[in-house]
Amino acid sequence: MKKQGSTSYDCRFIMKLDKHLALEALQAAIQQSQYFELLEQTRLSFPKFKIPKWELTNERISTIIKTRKSNSDEIPTEVLNKQIELKDDNLYRFDLIHHPTCSTLVFSWHHILMDGFGANTLLHSLSHTIENAERNFLVTPAKEGLRQQWSKLMKTKDFLKDISKGSLQKIKELNTIQKVDFVELKFNAKQTAEIKEQVIKYSRGGIDTPYFLGIIALAYFKTLEQRVEKLEDIFVPVPMELRKAGAKGPILSNQHTLLFFRIKANLRNDKAALIKDLNEQFFNQVKTQMPHNYASMINLLRLLPTAWYYKLVKGPNDESLAGFLYSKSPSPNNLSGLLDCHITDATVLPPNTSPPGISFQMMTFGGNLKFVIQFSESCFAKVEIKCILEEMQKELLAPND
Description:
Blueprint: E1 10-17, H1 23-32, H2 34-40, E2 42-45, E3 53-56, E4 65-69, H3 77-81, E5 92-98, E6 103-110, H4 116-124, H5 133-137, H6 146-163, E7 180-186, H7 189-202, H8 209-224, E8 234-241, E9 256-263, H9 271-287, H10 290-301, H11 306-313, E10 325-328, E11 337-338, E12 341-349, E13 358-365, E14 368-376, H12 382-396
Parallel strand pairs: 4-5, 10-13
Antiparallel strand pairs: 1-6, 1-12, 2-3, 5-6, 7-14, 8-9, 11-12, 13-14
Helix pairs in contact: 6-10, 8-9, 8-12
């Protein structure tokens, strides 16, 4: 049986509050929320020879809320390492942690349930009345003909085969420590403004993903140089939002496709050339509609048995091709308050698969930029994470050249 390591398919919203939040107040808000009422009635069905889908039932399963006490401001390890299984009745949960002077609310969910947009909107409903809740909750996906899906599948297959051919950097596990942790790299308003100027300088059309990927890669390569004899190219899948601007739904299901980048090791000493190459990769994929082709392919593969599906979406030898993971979180600015509490800080943790055992999340809170690095201690030592943080900060705040 294959060892699972510290792989987790859970996502988390961590909200630090300015005072204690009463359990009764949270329970009452959940009971009154139209979205949570629908969520408690929703089940994932697996009809034969059809794509698994969400269905509303007449049975309501109560939301799980666990309360804990902590003598420090830290999040208890068991909260960060608690995994939600697809077989569980509830694919989401709350952990309400009471510190000496305030509370932290952690909302965790399995990634198959929804994405960051859905979770953000769901939490927003605890403090606000939502119009047309049921209409925005579930959306029926557009149907495509089998011939059209097959054509997109073959185009995607050829693209992935081409971009992942040859040697790629593999991350080997260092030990058997089954623990996930995270660190944050925060920037103030002045620093955020300076970084945005650099994004404009290096990017095309104001798209920041290639720039931040390049910055992370520079720091990552520098750290890996201390571990491996020869550096290889890094393969990175990056989620891309499928909803149109201004969309209010759907809340359930993951409305993301993927972009794929090959970060070239031979460009690691040339910042401008590295970011230029990533910009070209980004716009070439958009131009050829590869993100939509990939989304169509995944929908088609979901018709297959689960074991076949996961084998096909992974690389050779059932291994992940990714050298690291990167995503951009929807800014939780509309979550500045929760019930009668003010949110003083918010952190989003995406799923973390091991290997590669490291994910980078870019987000803003209160208008300020920050990066969240989530890592498995089976794959990365804390001294390596410290090195990555220092190199990222140096590159992001480098004077204009």
